[in-house]
Amino acid sequence: MIRSPLLTRVVSLLLSFLLAGNLTYYNVRAQSGLDKLPILNILQVEKISPDLIELIDKLLSNVRVKTIVQSNGNWSLSLDLLLATLGGEVTRRYETFNAAAVDISLGSLLTLAASKEVRYISLDRDMRMMGHVSLTTGADAVRKTGGAASSGLDGTGITIAVIDSGIDTNHKSFLDRNGKLRVIVSKDFTGENRTDDPYGHGTHVASTAAGNGRIANASYIGIAPNASIINLRVLNKNGVGTVSGLLSALEWVMKNRSTYNIRVVNMSLGMAAIDSYKNDPVCRAVRTLSNAGIIAVAAAGNNGKNSDGEKIYGQIHSPGNEPSAITVGATNTFGSDSRSDDEVASYSSRGPTRSYWTDSGGTNHYDNLIKPDVVAPGNRLIYAQAKDNLLVTKNPELDAGVSHLDDRKMMYLSGSSMATPVVAGAAALMLQANPMLTPNMVKVLLMYTAQSLAGYNMFEQGAGQINIEGAIRLAKLVRSNLTNNTPVGDPLLTTSTHLAPQTTIAGYTFNWAQGIIINYTYATGADLITKYQKIYSQGVIVGDGVIVGDGVIVGDTTMISNGVIVGDSVLTSNGSTIDNGTVFTGASILLGEGTELHDGQILGDGVIVGDGVIVGDAVAQAQSAAVNGDRTSSMESVGDSGVDYLDY
Q1: Predicted local confidence at residue 648, as pLDDT
Q2: 102, 171: one domain
């Protein structure tokens, strides 16, 4: 059990004064660094994020900080008046999320938290970014169904919002077959008043999800090469952004989703997951998007090993710790199209999620969810290079040597940032195949058809490596008339014909996982794809299908049918299906509000480090790993003739 020193002192003082019948004021500055505080305000300390509590403890009360304030219900005039009284300044408002970015003094935070209208206050943290792929993921198989390479699924009609460092819209990768730009809107939320990509991350990410095949005979074609793209720039020229900027971008998506048919949001970025997903303002915003039918895809992070190269657990970043998001880790394909040798990249962040909330007694309650949900190729991927970008300027070896022309250059990048748009592109293809799919259905189909990689546990790979061919095959068969009112157990598919749960790619045949990750464990059963489950509805999360009591996990039959079997362990896969392998740890260790999982505890083949706080600065970052990534390249550099190839 971990206690905040400030919280312990505050609670002790509170109890002392309650016993003495004194409910007025007490100067605790000498002991806690705070000026005169109303005793009743101390009761509200659990409404303030842990890193803000630490600042209150260490700094003078007149020091001003940038925060995100969430309200209980709609933001009110009385809350504005309270902020004005406290000297707080609202710098941004988020009507959709009932929140605002507020500049305020540390000494006013406890008073603000005492208001019944305030739900939670957190620091406006900085954030940073977190690159053959089309063949090995199964995207080529669905694109070429019907004969010509230009037929089949390519993302047409679906819009992907890329929230990143901007996009170089002059790059040839973002044109359609008629030469028209597919980046249909560009917005800046950094304050730099530009929407290009001086850092170089967002262009690579966007082309991974939806780059065309014009360059080098489609050697670097994106997953959904004709999808429309929204460019929402939240990372500045140095690859750094803020929570407030990210919230602004997410609110823009909510308000404009119908206008541009935005169905997928890609977030190849993140920050240390400190606050429980129940309080984290970005997680709550992502949940709002998911409830509105938008698929949010987030990077897991790149903190899978320490400085000594040892595996570590518990380093999933925010918003990847949000249950409704599809959280993506990275794999290394070693440059081969066959998936027989694929591995989870050593740097890819592992679960469980270690975000937490702190009760009034100072006890931390960890979320401890299994994440990532799936993994995808992410090691040394070659995709579009923004002109004169900072990443290549500082690391010339990132230039893949494909072309000498600025609008055709390609670059290497590695990390969960590169794996995330592979999944975002896959989601776009699934929605093109069946526009009626809910975010939960997309997530479940991706997990159910994934390939469980041998030797890796669920904290490392979730359900396994995505298989676009299998996911599309199922997506096409899902009934288009399903609603939230469809009864549990009704037919899910338009056919009763048995589906072979296997896929063959580049001559290698593998089984589907045939199961899904649910909170602390997994669920299996053919009912997951033959019968409708309430966990597929909008407004819920997949984990709502389980009941936890006294360390036992069972299925909730109001949410899932009796044919779905819920496991009781976290497994290390033997490479067959999701329920085949050895027990890595019992699911019960993740229960009990997380108090069983202590810092430094040995957990199988690794250790938990810290309290879910990344060592070093807690900036939100683009989830890109080291320059060279793991071992060998996952893509071979192929020269470009300079002539556009259009038969993609």
Answers
A1: 77
A2: no
